[in-house]
Specification:
Blueprint: H1 2-21, H2 28-50, H3 55-82, E1 84-87, E2 91-96, E3 102-107, E4 113-118, E5 127-133, E6 144-149, H4 150-161, E7 170-172, H5 176-185, H6 189-207, H7 209-223, H8 228-236, H9 239-263, E8 267-270, E9 274-279, E10 284-290, E11 296-301, H10 303-307, E12 310-316, E13 329-335, H11 336-346, E14 357-358, H12 364-388, H13 393-417, E15 422-425, E16 429-436, E17 439-446, E18 450-456, H14 459-463, E19 466-473, E20 479-487, H15 488-498, E21 502-503
Parallel strand pairs: 18-21
Antiparallel strand pairs: 1-2, 2-3, 4-5, 4-10, 5-6, 7-8, 8-9, 9-10, 11-12, 11-17, 12-13, 14-15, 15-16, 16-17, 18-19, 19-20
């Protein structure tokens, strides 16, 4: 009888262990309920705090909300139960669906990027959010996303890495000063304002209008305590301009902090077949990138970065850098002197053909005439407004300056672009240099990753025998690399030599 009880107990524990081993981490149930549960929990909590607690009265008053919460939580439990997965030796299989079961299997050799993210909330319970990406062209979401335990995360990590061939060969960690510079250069006011907007929207959904009103009152009270010099300045500069300037600076600062925190402790290791990337402070990230699935490498620079001889090296691989505000960095930032050594260490098989065709001094007018025309539009518009609108003239003048400065800077960038546009081929791959808006790119890619080459010619380009060369690369989403104002005859000769069919 004792042996029978022991077997039953042991069998029950084994069944429970097997059940939980093939389910997502229980913290996933909070993810299922968080969007709706908070809207009902807040009013219930306010009632408990605001009045003398009477359980029966509380039940009678809030029975609809209590039933709604119970229903939401019960649905979350069902969703959690019906999602199961199996980690196998050749791949991972997930079964999803509440009323109709959908089975998806991803083979390890087809994975482009395997990512593990652990937020500060999930860290105490040892839960990881796992993202699996392939070249299956699922643009809107990941091929597979699961919240799993540390045990399953380590097991999957070992299966994908193949421990014998994946021992780290080299490891690269940028200096903290370089990461700081990287965050300064790659932060934008727009992304910061979007972050702030997202925070306010989520806060409004969770806590409601009352929180937003209190926050705005606090902000307004703090704004009234400005320095007297700033107050005097506000008498000469329109308040709308000050507000816009403050919004831009604040947005940039938020973006800077977010970028710094996201990429702090950046470390990348190269194995025989993979790249292992670790980064993050609040949210710790770990990526396994299949080197054979990398589409191309991109050396990115602004004009100021060119002046100081620094650059950032990124890579294009499905899944890496796909999440919001994440940059697919290989080397966050480096100097010209260190770049070649770092690339040779991390990407020893990188194809680096020399440029065969490039633009130069004779192409300056081709690159700048469009920005110059655009730059002339604001003064013309201001002249018309000053002539026919008698009010807001000071605001119009300030707006003119705000708009004209980036346009003039764009002209300077395009002058530099006329000396930095080129293309070259060799037996291993292709190298391209071009400018996209304010950003300079130098792209290296294997020939196998070129999906299409096309040429376009405007009427003006026909007159001087020029063309725009467009090289498309494979990946989750086909990307186009444009080199403008290239000599048509030479481009055509190279494409025929390399065996590419041109589409005009």
């Amino acid at each position: 009888m004792t042996k029978l009880k022991y077997k039953m107990r042991h069998g029950f524990r084994a069944a429970v262990s097997h059940f939980f081993r093939h389910r997502q981490h229980p913290v996933k149930m909070l993810d299922y309920t968080s969007k709706n549960l908070w809207l009902l929990l807040i009013p219930l909590t306010k009632y408990l705090i605001a009045s003398r607690f009477d359980f029966q009265s509380w039940i009678r008053t809030n029975w609809v909300d209590i039933l709604s919460i119970s229903g939401i939580f019960a649905l979350a439990v069902l969703r959690w139960i019906f999602v199961r997965f199996t980690i196998e030796s050749d791949g991972i299989t997930a079964h999803t669906g509440l009323f109709g079961i959908v089975s998806t299997k991803v083979y390890y050799n087809e994975i482009t990027t395997l990512s593990f993210c652990q937020s500060w909330i999930n860290r105490p319970v040892k839960a990881y959010t796992m993202y699996i990406e392939t070249n299956a062209r699922t643009l809107s979401s990941e091929d597979m996303r699961l919240v799993i335990s540390k045990r399953n995360a380590d097991l999957l990590f070992d299966f994908v890495r193949d421990s014998e061939e994946s021992a780290p060969k080299v490891t690269f960690s940028p200096r903290k000063t370089h990461l700081l510079m990287f965050s300064l250069l790659f932060s934008s006011a727009l992304s910061g304002m979007l972050l702030y907007g997202m925070f306010m929207f989520e806060a409004y959904k969770i806590i409601g209008l009352e929180f937003e009103q209190k926050l705005m009152l606090k902000v307004n009270s703090e704004l009234t305590r400005i320095d007297s010099r700033l107050f005097k300045l506000s008498q000469t500069i329109p308040k709308a301009v000050l507000a816009l300037g403050g919004l831009v600076i604040g947005g940039w600062f938020i973006s800077f902090i977010a970028t710094l925190v996201r990429h702090w402790s950046f470390t990348i290791s190269r194995t025989e077949d993979q790249l292992l990337v670790k980064s993050g402070v609040l949210i710790k990230r770990r990526h396994i990138i299949n080197r054979s699935k990398i589409n191309y490498y991109d050396l990115q620079q602004t004009l100021l970065m060119k002046a100081f001889k620094i650059c950032s090296v990124t890579l294009d691989c499905t899944g890496y850098g796909k999440s919001r505000r994440e940059i697919s960095a290989l080397i966050p930032i480096t100097t010209y002197q260190q770049m070649n050594a770092s690339l040779k260490m991390l990407v020893p098989d990188l194809p680096k053909p020399r440029p065969e065709i490039k633009t130069g001094r004779e192409n300056i007018s081709d690159f700048v005439w469009t920005p110059m025309i655009v730059c002339a539009i604001p003064p013309a518009a201001l002249y018309i407004l000053n002539k026919y609108v008698s009010i807001w003239q000071q605001e119009f003048n300030i707006l003119l300056v705000i708009i004209t400065i980036p346009l003039i800077w764009l002209i300077i960038v395009k002058v530099a672009a006329s000396f930095n546009t080129s293309v070259g081929f060799n037996e291993n791959g292709c190298a391209m240099s071009y400018c996209k808006l304010y950003q300079f790119h130098k792209v290296f890619l294997p020939k196998a990753n070129i999906s299409k080459i096309s040429i376009s010619r405007t009427p003006f380009q026909l007159l001087n025998n020029r063309c725009t060369l467009m090289i498309y690369t494979c990946g989750e989403k086909e990307k186009c690399h444009k080199m403008k104002f290239m000599p048509y005859d030479e481009i055509k000769k190279i494409c025929l030599r390399e065996g590419y069919i041109m589409f005009e």
